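seq:
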Amino acid sequence: MIKTISINSKKLKKFLNNIDNDFIENKSKKNTPWKYFNLKNFFYFYFIFKREIVGSIVISNHKNNTHINFLYVLKKFRSKKIGHQLIQYVEKKSKKKIISVHVFKNAKKVKVFYKKNGFQVVKSYKKLDQFKLKARKFNQNVYKEKILFYKQI
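struct:
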């Protein structure tokens, strides 16, 4: 079941504590993506299994696209289609026809995951040019370390 939950929820606190240390910066509500909880264009969804959060997707809406800022499934729940279900949920909820996501260049499994879910690497796509500029303003090194994937829905 996919739901929204308060930022101060005990379930969310437990979920954040269970995030791998590879994502240590995402374990604190003071950091990305949790620090944007009160912004109008950010939305937070959680996959609940047996009353516990086992996965989360955070999206932000932009002029031409919905961007996945964070997608995480607890290790013991991976390969059970939870990430796929979270993406499908966003596709149904999105009012935009394009979904995008930044992926670290060295994250081979993550790139395979997004390709299996119908995403492709942005080479040149006019509808995402404005978003790419906005992303560079936010982090000037974003495209040195990450690749932008997109999917048309």
